[in-house]
Amino acid sequence: MKRLATLLIAGIAGIAPAQTYQPPQHTRAAPLVSRSSDAELVQLADQGGAIEHDRSAAWLLGEHRRLAASLARLQPQRKGTVDAYVVSVALDSDPVFGREAREAGVVLSRRYAADSRTIVLAGTDGSADSRLAMGSPANLDTALARVAELMDPAEDVLILYTTSHGARFGIVYNDADQGFGAISPTRLWSTLSQLGIRNRLILISACYAGVFVPLLSSDTTAIVTAASSSKTSFGCQADNDWTFFGDALVNHALRKPQPLAAAAREATQTIAGWERDGRLEPSDPQIAIGAGAARWLDALDARVPKAPGTPVGRPANAILEPGGKARR
To answer: What does pLDDT average to over the chain?
Structure first.
């Protein structure tokens, strides 16, 4: 699972028939990474910066239209109702992240009755070019700004799910050979603060995702991450359907009629079991739920469907060989 920063690169594939489709490939070194100091990378992440290569004018127009269409479908909040706004984002073009973000959008929307208040930003699912806007730092900022316009910050809740590769400076944006960027805890915190989004459930599937916990934690925030700030997480192979975190938390625990805290504990135990089976170093997922989050959590948990949903896709721990050894 471990991906060094020097491998964090980006792109978009050409159109091809579904049966012969080749997802985006990482074929060249990421800009800046090999020539930049750690301090410069942190600065880039703090700015939510991205570098784009070889984007045609037609592609840029298409991306604008894809994003605009997604934003236009979001409905305003309802006075007196704790509405959930779901933003599910794949910040890497490897198909595992596109598949995970799409299904996370489905699961979280169903769980929190957010059908008309859900936006998914993601690259390919591995079968064809994506019809969605990419989960770039700029697109995520725009989506969050639109949610802030539509929600009542005093009563409504942002449900943010991000999935990508991670580094010690934050979440990495990778679009094969055509885009590279990053979002640090400082950048995400400042964006949410400037927009006035106080009630938030933040779920981060990435290596070192625990780096977001200290700064993003607050009385009205619940945050669950795939790993601590010093550990990698697992399951991000491009041909997987899920990362370990996404499968355990979203595909299983959050499909059940149980409170968020119970779902997070279940997912943590499931992941720990898979890691023991694969003789992997524990990823140490983090859970931080502010005391003031109980108000909106109670309201959201009360509307969770009574019937559990059915998990989909190939189990994330299928990457483990018989006998427990982890395939690399």
So the answer is: 89
What is the share, in percent, of the chain residues with pLDDT greater than 70?
89
What is the spatial distance between Cα 247 and Cα 266, in angstroms, rounded to a whole number?
A: 12
SS3 152: coil
Q: Which two tokens stand for residue 222?
A: 């619940």
Measured distance CA(118)–CA(202) in Å, rounded: 15
- Six token digits for residue 126: 């591995």
The DSSP bridge partners found for residue 222 are 201, 289
Phi then psi for 303, rounded to 5 degrees? -100, 5
Residue with tokens 């539509």: 150
Residue 33: pLDDT over 90: no
CA dist., res. 137 & res. 40, Å (int): 17
Q: Quick check: 135 pLDDT over 70?
A: yes
Q: What pLDDT is attached to residue 1? A: 41
Q: Determine contact, residues 28/177, Cβ cutoff 8 Å.
A: yes
Contact between residue 172 and residue 4 where contact means Cβ atoms under 8 Å apart? no
Q: What is the pLDDT of residue 71?
A: 97
- pTM, whole model, 2 decimals? 0.89
Q: How many C-alpha atoms does 60 have within 13 Å on its Cβ side?
A: 8
In this structure, what token pair is assigned to residue 108? 């979280």
Rounded Cα distance between 227 and 43, Å, is 23
Name the token pair of 199: 């009630």
* 25-30: long-range pairs with CB below 8 Å, 24+: 25/176, 25/177, 26/174, 26/176, 26/177, 27/176, 27/177, 28/177, 30/5, 30/6, 30/174, 30/180
Cα–Cα dist 143/90, whole Å? 13
Instruction: Specify the length of the chain in residues.
Output: 328
What is the pLDDT at residue 2?
38
**β partners of residue 160:** 87, 202
DSSP codes of every residue in 23-90? -----SPPTTGGG--HHHHHHHHHTT-EEE-S--HHHHHHHHHHHHHHHHTPPPP-TTS--EEEEEEE
Closest CA to 168 of 224, 238, 227, 244: 227
